[in-house]
Write a structure and sequence with these properties.
InterPro entries: Cold_shock_domain, CSD, CSD_CS, CSP_DNA-bd, NA-bd_OB-fold. The chain has 126 residues and is an alpha+beta fold. Helices cover 38% and strands 31% of the residues. A five-stranded antiparallel beta sheet has the order 3-2-1-4-5, with no helix packed on it.
Length: 126
C-alpha cells in the first residue's frame, strides 16, 4: 500500500488531498476514512488507490500517525486514565498470583490481557 501525508483536508466539506511518498496528489474523500477517524494536514496515512473521474482517489485509508495536536485532543482525561491503570494493576496482580501458583492464563484470557496492555500503552504514549 502506498503511504503519504495529508496535504489538505476540510472536515466540513469531507474531502482533501494526500501527497504520496512518490509525490503524487491523491484525492481523499471522507468515505475512505475509517469510522471515527479524523485527519489533518500532516497526518501520515497509508491507502489504496483507484482511478477516479478526476484522477487517483484514495481507498481504505489507515491513519498511521496524526499530528500531536490531534492525538492530545483525543486523549482520555488523567482521571479516566488513573481508573483504567488501577484496574489494569488489579488484573495483572491477579494474573501474577496465578503464575506464582504455576498456572498460566488461558489463551482467551491472555489475549484479553495483551489487548488491554496494548491499548493502555497506546493511550499513554503520545
Amino acid at each position: 500500500m502506498p503511504t503519504g501525508k495529508v496535504r489538505f483536508y476540510d472536515d466540513e466539506k469531507g474531502f482533501g488531498f494526500i501527497t504520496s511518498d512518490d509525490g503524487q496528489d491523491v484525492f481523499l474523500h471522507s468515505s475512505a476514512l475509517p469510522e471515527g477517524a479524523s485527519v489533518r494536514k500532516g497526518s501520515r496515512v497509508d491507502f489504496g488507490v483507484a482511478d477516479g473521474r478526476r484522477g487517483p482517489s484514495a481507498l481504505s485509508v489507515r491513519v498511521l500517525d496524526a499530528p500531536p495536536s490531534i492525538v492530545k485532543a483525543k486523549r482520555k482525561s488523567a482521571d479516566d486514565m488513573a481508573v483504567i491503570v488501577e484496574d489494569l494493576v488489579k488484573l495483572l496482580d491477579d494474573m501474577g498470583g496465578d503464575l506464582r501458583r504455576g498456572r498460566y492464563p488461558s489463551n482467551s484470557q491472555a489475549r484479553k490481557i495483551a489487548t488491554v496492555l496494548r491499548k493502555v500503552a497506546d493511550d499513554i504514549d503520545v
